[in-house]
Amino acid sequence: MAMPLLQHICQVIYDSQIGTSIRESEYLFSIIESVHVLAIALLVGTIAILDLRMLGVVLRDVSVTRIARAVFPLTWSGFGVMFVSGLLLFWAEAAKNYTNPAFRIKLVLLALVGLNPLIFHTTVYRRVQEWETARFSPWRARAAAFASLTLWCGIIVAGRAIAYF
């Protein structure tokens, strides 16, 4: 019986020279994984600052846009490094990840966490001038912040769980 196309693609990626080199290297996989974790810390840490501000937990006297301008360059840097390192980790273990339930959950959560700021920036953030200096953000901004923090926590837990499935 032929394997599904996506599974076949994952197997080809897994069997590639790059995937094999990363997987079989004494140190490379661990180094990439460490870089991935540090990039996640940078990404999620900077996002958490903005989310916690919108929830009214920290920096209540600082405008939302001022915080956003300060953290976004670091957020995007963390995202770039996280994306590249995550891609390399996937490359090394694509065939195993195809059937890994934790990996599948992580992908779903990543899709949702990507939709969250897209929806936020096209809706409630468009009128940020009206509420950015308020000590507490409007409920829709707080809901987006809560969703963001919850989804990122889920992504981190699912990412760690990949090793155990």
Automatic annotation (TrEMBL):
InterPro entries: DUF6644. Residues 32-164 form the DUF6644 domain. It comes from the Bacteria. The keyword Nucleus does not apply. The keyword Transmembrane helix applies. Pfam families: DUF6644 (PF20349). Keywords: Membrane, Transmembrane, Transmembrane helix. The chain crosses the membrane at residues 27-50, 71-91, 103-122, 143-163. This is DUF6644 domain-containing protein. It comes from Terriglobus albidus.
